[in-house]
Amino acid sequence: MANVSSEKQAQPIDYHAIEAMESFNSFVKKKNTFLFSITAVFLILYILLPILAFQPVLQQKLFGNITGVWVYSAGLFVMTIVLCTVYVKKAASFDKAAAAVLAEYRAKGGN
């Protein structure tokens, strides 16, 4: 037989109540806007590489025998590192905002 403790059982979180909160909806909107924007920039710049690689503009030699394709490709690596860094820093603020939403839910009588 299972041991039953006298501690109060944790009640499930009412996700519908959280979803109805204005602070939650504002948080989701900000997060989705950021994620869509950063993803769009990332995809557009990466999809342009195979398209522009065969265009005369990136076939020109820029530095010695280094063509524009190499410079653009190196720029994509730099962009990836920058976008990852920006995302990690922004994710920390999203974590704080999510904790604030949960704290507001609990302050209003949620568990």
UniProtKB/TrEMBL annotation:
Keywords: Membrane, Transmembrane, Transmembrane helix. Coiled coil: none annotated. The chain crosses the membrane at residues 34-57, 69-88. This is DUF485 domain-containing protein. The lineage of its organism: Bacteria, Bacillati, Bacillota, Bacilli, Bacillales.
